Amino acid sequence: MKGLLESLIRGLGNGSVYALLALGFVIIYKATRVISFAQPALMLAGAVAVSYLAEVTGFYAAVLLSALLIAGVALAIERIAIRPMVGRPVFVVAIITLGIDVVVRVVVNAFIGRDVRQMGDPWGFTQVSLGPLVVQSRWLAMLVVTAVLVGLLFAFFRFTKYGLAMRAAAFDQEIALAQGVSVGMVFALSWGLAGFLAAIAGMFVGTGQGIEQLTWVVALKALPAIIVGGLDSLGGAVVGGLVVGVVESLFQSYQGEFAPWLGQNVAVVSPYIVMLIVLLVRPYGLFGTREVERV
Domain-by-domain residue ranges, the chain? Predict the structure, then answer.
């Protein structure tokens, strides 16, 4: 039981990072109906920015500055590359975001170099005791920070005029325009928020283990999270991220003992196995909106 609980805490910690990335995907999708494949690059850029700024300002100030910096980069990407594509087929815009991802990663890789770049975080692999349980400090930090950010994000959408404008545009852009909502502002704000969350997620991905040129692959686990939770559900993104993290952690802990015949490194593909199962049972996700076509 002790090992199971420790595995669950590890999964919830890593799942919190996937949830932050998934929220970025969903926020952009709800606003623009486009899946942004630039999130992995923004995550990597945020992690690298933290590693450099931490040498100058200290770690916590570096995290805030980097998140704001990457939010600004995301705003610039939206204004320069995405805004002119409004009205074009969704597939075309999605491909453009894929190209943006490649370009940003090539630039960021030049700052990483060939060696692993350390984050300079205060947690590393240090462990703390929670009664009989021994868990890494960074997992608890991931859970706490994600809980705070998710709470602030939901409060933003519910109680601020900009959040209400984003909800209105997500519901129906034409009606929102008729009511005086600036859909362009909504597009920009969605990219800015996604960039901010990606930078925070990138910081956590690099804690303890550092950053290398292939760190961006971690962000791909957010794709099963948004499919599991529902592509247009913010709450679903959080739940999906946590589910993916827990399943991955349980496979890491117990697959070798209970199902060795599956081979090695099954935990790596376990998020996609969960995604396929959900697609077969509930194609629009656990909390996604079921689309009904009337003919």
Answer: 2-219
